[in-house]
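Q: Entry one of two.
A:
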Amino acid sequence: MLLGIRSKKVILIRHLSVAALGAVLVYLFYLSYPSWGVVPALWPEWNVDHAFWRSFAHAAFVLLFVTLIIGPLATIWPFFNRFISWRRELGIWFAVLSVGHGYAIWDRWALWDIQRFFGFEYIEALGGYALLRPEVGIMNMMAVVIFPMIILLAITSSDRAVQFLGISSWKWLHNSLIHSIFYVVVLRWVLYAFFFFQPTLPDLRTYPPVWPLYPFLWMALCVVIVQAIAFVKTIARQRSGGNTTKNKIHALVLVGISLLFISPVALVLGSVAFLDSRIITEDQRVAQQRPQNYARSFHMVIREETQDVYLWVRDIDSEPYFRQTINVDDSPVAHQIYRYDEQALYTGELDPDGTFTWSKDENIRPEDLGLANIIAGPALWALELGPGEQQIPIANGTVPVSIMSVEEPLEDEIFTIPVGTN
């Protein structure tokens, strides 16, 4: 036995322990999802399913990190030798979580459609598929590349495989594949968390922050640094003694090799940090005003000089329903109603004969309504000031606002669309 573990009970306990660790990591990453700053109304595609498959990926990376760092740590500090035998279980459950991540994307994102899996969508007007999400295609193509490597590592993680392949061939296979997987995973993570979710012209659409970006990059850098230190220590032991001048030259060569070994991940981390400090991540005017706490549901009247604007908002950051009615001389002259369940915006305009003509715009996403401005304005006022007559300071004075209700149920009838609307 390669690891000297013959007890099936011990092996079972180890697998159950690592499986439990993986499950806890998945759960904790899933719970951390709201802390990313994701407001579903602004980014509806970042829904519960997104949190589900990302949690599997994050947990898998943590297990990969631990698997890779144990060996070098044992070389540097003998204390960690006792943990080397755990690398097998950690690697197997890294593979299990990776497969879970892939299956979640295939089932919940691609919906079992190979074209959609690679970023294509069927366009009825064209009568065929067109590439709409190239970033998805790149990400999933990279996953396809490393998936067989992960499976091969998992199925050869046994003493029987070691005996069949031979210890030298087995070590070469695992060392080669695990490091190939590591670098592809790091690159895939950087593309996903940084390059693919930055504002791009012409609309500079913003995305929620992906908080694990830097922690995971620092973990990746830590892996290669510890490996480089272990490499230098191993060579130093082999070359101890001898000519002092030659030893100094050897030391400089080893330092140079170590720096080159570390440089790929270090350059990635440095590039991301450099670019991240210089890009525009969102409309700074909105960013400066966006509050952390605001009312999710409210009803208010904004009283302007020539008109009164009635606002009803329900569940603004989850499944928003929105109504705006403009009154002039106490009579309505315009309506707008947004219904989240239909992803539709209804507009009512007053005709010369005194009747309203309603129209319907479909496929309207919540972020298309400018909800960020509502959050930074009326939703903040409602929570901070509460019901009652208020004077809201603005750039050129104040505006009277009547806050009718805050965080109270709003009836469905408020958002009902008149019969016969086109």
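Q: Entry two of two.
A:
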Amino acid sequence: MAADPKPLKLWDRDKGKAVEEFMPDHQTTYETRPLRAPGQWLRATPLFDKLYALYQDAPWTRRNIDPFVREYHIDMSEFEERRYRSYADWFVREFKPGKRRFPEDPGTMGAPAEARYFGWERFGPEQRFPVKGQSLAAADILGNAERAKPFLGGPVLLMRLSPVDYHHVHYPDDGRTLDHERLGHSIWTVSWTAVHNKPDIYIRNERQVNILETEHFGRLGFVEFGALTVGRIVQRHPLDRPFRRGEQKSVFKFGGSAVAIFGEPGAWRPADDIREHTPQGMETIVRLGEPVAISLRSA
């Protein structure tokens, strides 16, 4: 089928209403069968990713910043004030101190990414991820059945970062990293439309798998996915050191990307509005640090 970009219907938590969003992406990312588009196949290779990153880091790409900010109504007053050396440098901009805060209540999980969220209270071994015609079990995403075993029947959060978003990822709670591995290779878009059309995107893409032991939410399977033109998931916090709630974990270098969190059964549940809109196929827009889950351990 021909490419036919359509708006995504999202729930905007802050506005309290449904909104429509067009993805700022290339037309071929919406092909029904991505592998049939030669241009998209090329764009999904690590080599293209590296060359594209070099281009976007060139000084003359600064001229693309202001038009992008105007088109997508990005509030630059929230971000650090400095001269960006390139479009890629601007893409990994950081918030000013205090612009985002994590919950003081230890039993409330703050959003680790500023993104669009799906959430499920229970993800069983036979349950399908939200795609057509193919099962993406926890073992597929986490790399093996043994690593996934503690999370079967537990809650899941899936967050998609649009190219317009802040692209740093933060820790949702205090804790330490028990295990980590880098998997995958291809770099496809993770737009909701593309996931429907290419259901194995989440297990083909470059991804960083982390098993975290947290103080208030138990063990988490925390997975960062590279996506179209995002082959570089750069770890900012040393994985051999304990981490604190709200501390920066990693950064995605250019493009769109995604994060998934798997939890142990009965440990926590996603926030009510996320769970309410997920069955409707509607992502919930959540700002960094806003509540995304509640601990059930002391409930």
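A: Comment on entry two: Residues 1-127+136-299 form one domain. Residues 25-45, 131-135, 186-203 have pLDDT under 50 and may be disordered.
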